[in-house]
């Protein structure tokens, strides 16, 4: 059973620093929704609610004016006049027009189209065959709970562990690891920085896991990994691998990012299947290899989202943050605005007010266009802004803030200003690999199977 609980802090320092959000959450049996007190400051309570399909409901108490948020959303829609009127994305019209000219004849070739139809069926089957099972999910959650209990046996810190990443978005493949955030907001008063707090907490937790009798024998490997976001990599003897990071801020971005991506998964079934193909192909071709200058896994997912928003017409994915401003966390003029609740089990999004022409492209066609889009993307002069669903100019000619040339690839995160594309060094080398795969796929004389794509390079 998952037990997600964001604790109200009784510390005045914390309350003063975090007026925008006091978060609380919990998980209990389906349809059981009740409010109980749990040792939090007077006047507040903890909401315990349903767990459906193994995904949690997270309830947040927001201390900002929700009507004010709606007004901001209205101003954004007026300001973004070049957005798609329904999906609130900014199409990359230059690429869309070029790809239409380039592929219209190929995509109307009867023999080639039938080959792509068969390939699309293979891609979809590949997704379902390799998707993480409920048993895998349960094993991850059980190991995370063991880690949490171990910490609680050693320290009476006010903290919580939160699962995030692909495991919470339905993009996790069999054997994938679990991203977990150790959240302890009270700790900021004792450390000069977030980085210093993370370093100490992760080393303390490593010591607890090494020396605790109840869990030490179940752990196969335990390493502290120094990185921009350091993690404690924990592997159980049962084969479950956890990447544990530490967060002392009020905003746990990993949870909100996971919730946003899960929204895209529920919007169009092609997104998840295309994501798994892109990530697996990129791993084999080393386009996804952050240690050697490639993209990381999260960046690859964002590339797929941006392509399905701005690289096809009609768009397949909308800008969920602008379309549903009360449902998703958004960065508005440097301030992150939080939703009242996150329900990972509630995957239905209302489309009643949308009258958008369906996009008929199948998975194979989308993979071809994805490779074409990024093999020709001008990363030197453009960057991807996820929160605005737009490819913007680095020099700021479109009114956006200029982007430093320090970043070979800049992808502005949906929530904050960091770039998930920061690991990329030689983007031209990655684009060359995309062109090789694209050349194989666009030969009308050759029958291409999924095995050819995954073994190519």
Automatic annotation (TrEMBL):
Single GO MF descriptor: metal ion binding
Keyword check for Metal-binding: yes
Keywords recorded for this protein, A-Z: Magnesium, Metal-binding, Transferase
Domain Poly(A) RNA polymerase mitochondrial-like central palm as annotated: residue spans: 119-264
GO biological process, any: RNA 3'-end processing
InterPro entries: MTPAP-like_central, NT_sf, PAP_assoc
Protein known as: Uncharacterized protein
Species for this entry: Ancylostoma ceylanicum
Gene coding for it: Acey_s0026.g1316
